[in-house]
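note to self — DONT lose this again. spent like an hour looking for the file last time. sequence + predicted structure for the chain T wanted, 130 res
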Amino acid sequence: MRKFVYNKLVRDKVFDSMLKMGEKVEHKILLENEYLEELKKKIIEETTEIDFDNREGALIELADLQEVLDSIVTTLGKSKADLASLQEKKNKKSGFFKKRIFITTTELEDENEWVQYLEKHPDRYPEIKQ
């Protein structure tokens, strides 16, 4: 018999199927904080599997991603309606992504309130020193 490290959160029926197929599965039930961390990892896993050249396959992966997001919302004690309300508020305040605007650089005065935010995240917003 061969043994492999799995180390990932799986859907309930996947686990059931593994057992039915006679696999010897070592597992644990995650605490809430562990569960949320594993769901966060699942977001990355599911997004890397999206292939937009295969539109139908992309929709399947997006459905998986939506399931992960729904699980996070439920674990946080909220509902899809709560999330939709927050999304609506955010869209009213900040807009959508429909215009496809992609900013490559920005120059701000030292006094600009966003400078501190950008400085706190140099991995995401490296400063260009001239």
